[in-house]
Amino acid sequence: MTKDNSPLVLGSEPIGKLLMKYALPAIIAMTATSLYNIADSIFIGHGVGALAISGLAITFPLMNLAAAFGSLVGVGASTLISVKLGQKDYENANKVLGNVLILNVIIGALFTLFALIFLDPMLYFFGASEHTIPYARDFMQIILIGNIITHMYLGLNAVLRSVGYPKLAMYTTLLSVVFNCVLNPLFIFGFGWGIKGSAIATVISQVLSLAVQLIHFANPKQLIRFRTGIFSLRKDIVQGILSIGMSPFLMNLCSCLIVLLINRGLKTYGGDMAIGAYGIVNRVLFLFVMIIMGLNQGMQPIAGYNYGARLYQRVTGVTLLTTYWATGVATLGFLLCQLLPEYIVGMFTSDPELVDTAVNGLRIAFLVFPIIGIQMVSTNFFLSIGMAKKAIFLSLTRQLIFLIPFLIILPQYFGALGVWISLPSADFISTIVTLIVIIRQFATFKQLNAAEIKDNH
């Protein structure tokens, strides 16, 4: 391991330089992934049809459910490794790596088996109709067959960032994206495989990226690597991974429930085209959310290491800097979606009904988007330092406490409009709660930092 790739620099290099070093590769990777998802929807919209976009949107809750189990292991393990490295506990950091691999295989296999058995009932429950379920089923059957690959790929990518290789994590993601973008139109248009071709391209691309990750961690020169004795599950490590990963797990689980409520509400009050409109809005929304998540991924090892090393001022510094950058990204998304919604939606479809519905939805969904960065970064901050309970609380305030009640109540009075306005309403209220919690935590860090300085003197 070179000096630049050593995790030890996380406690000494300037915060701004470190955040740029770690976040930029993650942002590029996350943006590329999101752009691929957008391109995927564009290929499906123009190559298969408007109903196929609606069918793809039906799969979002199930995809969120799969992501929930993936993040349960990946996020928990990467945070735990960062803290172990900050404590210079390299032996247990390696054991975490081995447990990541085993847990991903077990959880991925169980999820795949369950979802394939109950696929059709789940899709109907998520809002599918007789017109859209063939597209949703064709897509998800193939995605689920490759689910173990997806879990391992995402989990090891999170570990790569934590052990000082953010650029390699970026390259593995870009490798997957590039092959996806090449294979997708080939399979959809060239081979005529339709929406199945998109799913096949996704799985093949992730297999290639996973191979690169496995080669890296098999290298005996790496500080954190595969070695004998790390592939048996250890109760303390599994509990640590799952307790920290519980927050993103619940966030994704709530996301599953939220998309379910959105799809069912839009189906009831707007029909299949309204669900397709949300599919488009969701893709655009996630472009900016993924960029902020890239910033969060860059912040995570820095905050985790310095918290483990009890350098509280650096933890506060990197969190504030990440929040500033995230707010800038969110503001850009707000401006583009308020000023150019017709152009954005027009990239996905030319269907007049779908365009009109998606344009209105896009404007409403992004109404208070500039403040969303505060909520996202603060939740990730608590995850990064292992304060899982606070992270869970913040993630649930937006989704469980505010958004879900809005999605249940408002459509009864405002129809489909009530579904759309629920999104910015929950964002606004939950951000106020988040500000209160994060300010109190920074005050605690200030006291701890003062105590550290006093003890050193």
UniProtKB/TrEMBL annotation:
Its main location: membrane. One of its GO terms (biological process) is response to antibiotic. It is a multi-pass membrane protein. Pfam families: MatE. GO terms for molecular function: antiporter activity; xenobiotic transmembrane transporter activity. It is found in: Cell membrane. The chain crosses the membrane at residues 22-39, 96-119, 139-156, 168-193, 199-219, 240-262, 274-295, 315-341, 361-388, 400-422, 428-445. Keywords: Antibiotic resistance, Cell membrane, Membrane, Transmembrane, Transmembrane helix, Transport. InterPro entries: MATE_fam, MATE_MepA-like, MATE_MepA_subfamily, MdtK-like. GO terms for cellular component: plasma membrane. NCBIfam families: matE. Belongs to the multi antimicrobial extrusion (MATE) (TC 2.A.66.1) family. MepA subfamily. This is Multidrug export protein MepA. It comes from Parabacteroides chartae.
